[in-house]
Amino acid sequence: MKRKLTLIFSLLGLCFTISVKAQIITIDGNFSDWDAVPYAHINAEGTGGRLEALKTFGTATHLYFMVEGTTEMDFGTLLVHLDTDNNPATGYNNSWQYGAGAGSDYKIEGNAPWWGSLAQHSGNPADDWDGFTEIQPLTNADVHARSAVVESGEKKYFEFSITKSYLGTLGTVINVVIYDTTNPVTGSVPATGENAKYLQINTTGITTLPVTLASFSATFAENGIILNWSTYSEQNNSHFELYKSVDGVSFDKIVTVDGAVNSNSQLFYNYTDHGISSGSVYYKLKQVDLNGTGTPLGVVEVKSKLKKAQFSVYKISGQNALELSVYADKNKASKFVLSDINGKVLADSDVQLVSGNQVIRVPLSAKPGIYVATLSTTEGLLTQKISIAE
């Protein structure tokens, strides 16, 4: 629901009418009043369990949250941790879930208005979970309101509010994490992880993503893996980082690409990874703010069409030599043999292959004709016919 405020100005005898939309959020299970609010956070694909994205909005009196998730999202039990003093060294320390920054000063846990509580932590991390003391029951509707979980299409949506006066003195930003702890499937936003931390949100107004990603893809090509991504908008975006993995677990950074800093139009980026390997390869895209804060944007998988070893061979014009272009998935010993169609061997060389692409020159003196080139490793035999015209 949105309220229109009409301001009437009179200047030099002329009358101007200006309509201003004031954002009003109502916790009622009708999510249309969130349409104009941008996402504050979107979990990277494959992370966060059944919770996928979050929007937030703050007024003078309340903090509002809208959670988007899969059809498994339930919120029979809602758990919210709030770091209100912006100090991860105080409060409940759940760094085993958020390794890059945690410290809960308040928590809401339960299913309002039937059961649950708003609790405040002693501030001493050593007190652990026992450091929380209930300050208000969630049966007090003034503390916290929540909607039903509503399914629409292939998503579910849920909204709730917290009254700010129960959270002590708040600055312009706080840090939060939201859990759906209903068994048997759980979820969180932001997603947990060794490099994860609580999400920083504005206590008044909206919280926007530094980058709104439009697309991210990886395509196999003869000269490498082509990575393309685009953004709808960028805010204080320093650069992007691309990471690569062969197992989808351990990632290594391969390149940094400058961002646009600020943009409200769609921008396109690309990078070609020439270090092709066989099998599935995973690429992770990360965005880094001007202040150094990083946000993962997604992971894509591409299946390389390369075999564990493959090669092509051709005669070097005007020289008594062949050139082999070889790809190997790892360092390995091999043997190259060139024979004529009658089986007579003209070249027989031991070749030590290294991981990746390589070009190898083999001396050869042969008459014009059709020959068979073979490259053998412990994993198999590769064969190619070659025509020598001179």
TrEMBL record:
The keyword Protein transport does not apply. The keyword Phosphoprotein does not apply. InterPro entries: Ig-like_fold, Secre_tail. Keywords: Signal. Residues 1-22 form the signal peptide. This is T9SS type A sorting domain-containing protein. It comes from Pseudopedobacter beijingensis. The lineage of its organism: Bacteria, Pseudomonadati, Bacteroidota, Sphingobacteriia, Sphingobacteriales.
